[in-house]
Write a structure and sequence with these properties.
heterotrimer, A alpha/beta (400), B mainly alpha (287), C mainly alpha (327), B: 287 residues, mainly alpha, ABC transporter involved in vitamin B12 uptake, BtuC, two-stranded antiparallel sheet, C: 327 residues, 15 helices, 74% helix
């Protein structure tokens, strides 16, 4: 332990020496959908990044960091791509990060690859996008992390035999469906109906889809919808249609129990089982510190959610990469320094898989319970060190 | 699946469409103003209703009244200052103006309240299941059906059976003639515009349970508002009621039995209905 | 020389018309780091120009023009992805053909209506295409789109650099110029004059026995083909295509741009796209979370104080100044 400390100090002072008298500034280009449908998510990530810097003021020392923010505006890709191109050629940033939508990550990738800049993804969850280029690393998740774990848990822990899957009809929804189905059926369950519930653009009236699911009388109803107002609609409809009384248990990835939306879901949500990589009630020191500081900064009613933690961890990863490479930030060495990187995140221990450059993290099984008049997530099980199963199982594009 | 719950669900879906769109049928259909900021008024109303319930603890009906009144008042200011200058402008200038206004509303709400989704927590009696004797069904849906029918009746009486309604129709058909007959067209339009905007606000509040509520609302549902009004036929508030009902029920039923077709149905239905009756289901003449 | 002048006279060619093209070329040298934005701008101009042909000249108001932009964009994308057909010029021609065919077919059905009904029919047609593209994700890539499309170098010589859009910019400029010439010749031809006649006085055109429907459908199909070229360019320049090429956002956006610039004036598309995109780009850079406010206010101001967009202001200024000189 002592020798490690010493070498750390040595490295830090060496780095300081190498940087010379004037501290070198690292420029980080942040591309997020600050306006439009994704604005809510961008705000969480943006705040998470700021909280990391606030709570760890010396994380980058001796280097200074400068964030250059650009609005990706929509999931269309063209604006995100132009933003990345300008950040690189005009602002001369060292790193590109952010990105809510996978479609934007896909559009930006050729630009970042050509410029040989590290590309650190803080949200975009389509499983295979990390395979697009060796300059990409991801600190967020793939839809397979939670979907696969949920399928396994539904069959083994909840003893469910049959399931209906309802999903928003776009890539994360389809990924979730396949991930859940793969694990659930491998563990002996059977998916008896798959219901696409409209695209991500508009919140649909969930009633017809939920009525159909109710008629199938499954043991569990697995739902994936985008976080935000879709999730609230799901909970309201589930409660109002009396599905709980009919003995159908609602389960899903934690996108439907986003911490910021919890209190508006109503009592129908009690008993809901989800699997996710973060919730604000996680019991670890890093999380307690983050939540306390967050409430102080943004108000007692506000809560960090999983996206905020992704922004937080993203900054931690960048800090590590910057210091490990002594400020020399070409894509190869930066990404290599992240391979196998370990960090005690507010979501528990995380690391970057050296092979896939994707995140390895715990998935938490939680049950929504009522305590003191508020809805809280009670953690009822931890599945440690979950990898992106899509790439482990080499499903479709993930195998390339 | 039992027919009663399918029909109830479809009726409720149609009534939500009706309640959020009927304000537009007043401004676009009656006054002939292409008001693409309609959804903006609905959003502002929804915010006023949701925030006054959360922050001041107003009961839902009082919040609805507040939403109607505050948005109607705001719309009078906007109408006198800005809209009135464009009554005689081309439709395309009206489009440019109202889209600009919608942008301003979106940005203002984002800056003032934040980009996150607002939740409108309904009172207990609207959240669970209502026992109708023959069936138990979602209380909210039942309430929406009742509200929609009452609203439609009130509007039908108001616009088609009163002097006020007759004046409006006269003023739209021939403004100069109406003015020379002593109708104060300017005031008439101001009042009508305020009613249309107030109805939008109420729609934003009532529809929030299903359509959600966030700063993107005005543009996200614009297509729905326009579809319902176009299919209903311009100039007919009652037409909008039946078109919303028809689209709502068919869309609902198709979604249950063919969920794979999901989002296509509403557009396919509109296409078919408008090709069949280009002036709308209840339109008197070609638009 | 005389022949040239005569031609210029017949087509009302004016000296200042060289200006935008010279400026676009100059921009290539002055702003080498802004060419990605510049390319998007040129593509938007072409798209708005295609809309001007139907909206400004034929008087057809549509909220579904992105259907043709999207058809062109997907044609180019799917040819490259599935058939390996990635020669830029020929795949652009294919985009024009596919979009034009869809325009012809939908025009035959839809152009019997007008006003709000036509607006909704065009919107629904586009929305159906969008949903079809989402459902056919196996072929179209769906919401996420097709990644990393590669195209052959232009004319076998100029490769498309993903980081610096030099080839893309000049290519888009050349295509825009060619399409502009087509539109310009068209609107000053007897065909174009008859379109204006239909817009201004439908009854009289019927009375003189002009084949009104056929001419409108033809204009619609040509416009669709041009929008398809714009969409194809989009895919080639950006090397990806996804659902956003088909959305209401794009269709409404291009309508706003054309109204902002001034419709029925050919150069309204240029002015509108430049003003809108520059304002949006600059505001979004400075205020990533609040730029919509400024943009909205600008649109409202133009609608209130100008008739027929920015070029409308210019025209009335010109008239006023000219009037004073005469007096």
């Amino acid at each position: 332990m002592r020798s490690r400390l010493v070498s750390l100090f040595a490295a830090a002072s060496l780095a300081a020496f190498a940087a010379g008298a004037t501290a070198q500034t690292v420029k980080i280009g942040v591309v997020l959908t600050y306006t439009g449908v994704g604005a809510e998510f961008a705000q969480q990530i943006d705040r998470g990044m700021q909280m990391f810097v606030k709570l760890n003021p010396n994380a980058f020392a001796p280097y200074k960091v400068e964030l250059v923010k650009r609005d990706a505006k929509n999931p269309g890709g063209a604006d995100a791509k132009t933003a990345a191109q300008e950040l690189i050629t005009q602002d001369k940033v060292d790193i590109i990060t952010g990105v809510i939508y996978s479609s934007n990550a896909i559009a930006m990738e050729p630009v970042v690859t050509a410029a040989k800049k590290p590309f650190l993804i803080m949200n975009a969850g389509t499983a295979w996008i990390t395979n697009l280029s060796p300059v990409i690393a991801r600190v967020s998740f793939s839809m397979w992390h939670a979907g696969h774990a949920m399928g396994d848990a539904a069959a083994k822990m909840m003893k469910a035999k049959t399931a209906v899957v309802g999903y928003t009809d776009y890539p994360p929804g389809k990924d979730s469906l396949i991930a859940f189905k793969t694990a659930f059926e491998a563990a002996g369950g059977k998916v008896i109906d798959e219901i696409p519930m409209g695209g991500p653009g508009k919140v649909p009236d969930f009633t017809p889809f939920f009525q159909r699911a109710k008629d199938r009388k499954p043991d569990v109803f697995f739902v994936f919808v985008p976080a935000g107002d879709h999730a609230v609609g799901v909970m309201k409809t589930y409660g109002a249609l009396g599905m709980k009384q009919a003995g159908i248990r609602l389960i899903g990835p934690g996108d439907i129990t986003q911490d910021t939306k919890l209190q508006s879901m109503g009592d129908a949500a009690v008993g809901l089982i989800t699997v996710h990589h973060y919730n604000a009630n996680l019991d670890n020191p890093a999380n307690k510190r983050l939540v306390a500081a967050w409430k102080k900064e943004y108000g007692a009613d506000s809560t960090p959610d999983f996206m905020a933690v992704q922004g937080y961890d993203g900054m931690a990863a960048i800090a590590h990469g910057v210091r490990a490479n002594k400020g020399k930030l070409d894509a190869d060495s930066f990404i290599n320094s992240l391979r196998g990187w370990k960090f005690d995140s507010p979501r528990g221990p995380i690391s970057i898989d050296p092979r896939t450059r994707d995140i390895v993290m715990n998935e938490y099984l939680s049950e929504l319970t009522k305590s003191g008049g508020r809805l809280v997530q009670k953690n009822i099980g931890t599945i440690p060190a979950v990898k992106d199963m899509c790439k482990e199982l080499r499903v479709d594009r993930c195998g390339k | 699946m039992d027919v009663a719950s399918v029909l109830l669900g479809g009726f409720a879906a149609g009534m939500v469409l009706f309640i959020v769109s009927v304000g537009l049928s007043v401004t676009l259909g009656l006054m002939g103003f292409v008001n693409l900021a309609h959804g903006g008024f609905a959003m502002l109303g929804g915010y006023a209703i949701a925030l006054s319930m959360r922050e001041w603890g107003l009961p839902f009906p009082a919040a609805l009244a507040l939403g109607f009144a505050s948005v109607a008042a705001l719309s009078v200011v906007l109408e006198r200052l800005l809209y009135a200058r464009l009554y005689r402008a081309s439709e395309l200038d009206q489009v440019l103006f109202t889209i600009g206004l919608a942008f301003v509303m979106i940005a203002s709400v984002t800056l003032a309240v934040g980009p996150e989704t607002q939740t409108l927590v309904l009172p207990e009696w609207l959240r669970g299941q209502a026992d109708l004797g023959f069936i138990k069904y979602r209380s909210y849906s039942v309430a929406v059906i009742v509200a929609g029918v009452v609203l439609a009746l009130a509007l039908w009486l108001g616009f088609e059976r009163t002097r006020y309604g007759a004046r409006i129709r006269a003023a739209v058909d021939n403004r100069r003639m109406a003015e020379s007959l002593g109708v104060d067209v300017q005031r008439l339009f101001t009042v009508t515009f305020a009613i249309g905007s107030g109805l939008a606000a109420v729609g934003g509040g009532i529809g929030a349970e299903i359509l959600g509520l966030d700063p993107q609302y005005p543009l996200r549902y614009l297509a729905y508002f326009l579809i319902v009004v176009a299919v209903g036929g311009l100039g007919r508030v009652t037409g909008v009621f039946f078109s919303a009902l028809l689209i709502g029920v068919l869309d609902f039923v198709l979604k249950i039995y063919f969920p794979k077709g999901g989002a296509m149905f509403i557009y396919a239905l509109t296409l078919a209905l408008l090709l069949w009756r280009p002036q709308g289901l209840f339109g008197k003449r070609t638009a | 020389m005389r022949a040239v002048l005569e031609l210029a006279g017949r087509h009302r060619l004016r000296a200042w018309e060289a200006l935008p093209w010279a400026a676009a070329l100059a921009a290539f040298f002055v702003f080498p780091n802004h060419l990605a934005f510049g390319t998007q701008l040129l593509i938007t101009v072409l798209f708005a120009l295609s809309l001007d042909l139907v909206l400004g000249y034929a008087g057809i108001v549509t909220l579904g023009h992105a259907a043709f932009f999207g058809a062109g964009a997907y044609t180019v994308g799917m040819l490259a992805q599935h058939l390996g057909w990635n020669e830029p010029l020929s795949s652009l021609a294919a985009a024009a053909l596919v979009a034009g065919a869809i325009g012809l077919a939908s025009g035959l059905v839809l152009l019997r209506t007008h006003g709000l009904t036509l607006l909704m029919l065009t919107l629904c047609t586009m929305a159906l295409l969008e949903e079809a593209a989402n459902m056919g994700a196996r072929y179209t890539g769906g919401f996420d789109g097709m990644p990393g499309l590669g195209f052959q170098p232009l004319l076998g010589i100029f490769p498309f650099d993903v980081l610096f859009f030099r080839s893309q910019y000049l290519y888009a400029l050349a295509v825009l110029f060619a399409c502009f010439v087509v539109v310009r010749v068209l609107v000053y031809s007897p065909f174009g004059q008859s379109l204006t006649g239909i817009r201004e006085n439908l009854l009289r055109m019927h009375a003189v026995g002009a084949p009104v429907r056929a001419r409108l459908v033809l204009a619609y199909a040509i416009s669709a083909a041009l929008a398809g070229v714009a969409g194809g360019l989009f895919t080639q320049a950006n090397a990806f295509v996804n659902l956003a090429v088909l959305g209401l956002d794009r269709a409404a956006g291009v309508l706003i741009i054309l109204i902002l610039g001034g419709y029925g004036r050919l150069y309204g598309a240029f002015v509108g796209a430049l003003a809108y995109l520059l304002l949006e780009h600059a505001l979004a850079k400075a205020y990533p979370t609040a730029w919509q406010l400024g943009l909205g206010l600008a649109l409202m101001a133009v609608a209130l104080y100008a008739r027929n967009g920015i070029l409308g202001i210019a025209a009335s200024l010109h008239r006023r100044l000219g009037g004073r000189r005469a007096a």
